[in-house]
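In this section we walk through a basic example: taking a raw amino acid sequence and producing a predicted 3D structure, encoded as discrete structure tokens. The instruction is simple. Fold the sequence below.
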Amino acid sequence: MANSFKLKTKTGIGVTSENVYVVPGATTSTIIGITLANISGAGCLINVGIDRASADNVKLLKNVPLPQGSTLEFMQGNKIVLETTDTLTIQSDTHTSIDASITVLEMT
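The resulting token sequence is shown next.
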């Protein structure tokens, strides 16, 4: 089994839910860290979720306020294991307002 650390980034996330990370085939991934930065000129509310093929979709954050110009380091020491085709999604209530960086350990 090969292990590989990855950094996944997405800029300008807005009101449409964005697939920030999709677990590749024949892979199990561990989310090690999520950092979200508000790049807009106002505060916003953010949502982070996991979409699963089994339809057991869950929210990790729901309507969490992120003030203008601030950053949220989400996870801080916790880990989430994702399976093949699981998708990490992020959404804001403000257009083009969030930059995201996700640290992942992929195991193939």
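Looking at the output, two observations stand out. DSSP finds no helices and nine strands in the chain. Residues 79 and 105 are 10 Å apart (CA to CA). In the next section we compare this with other chains.
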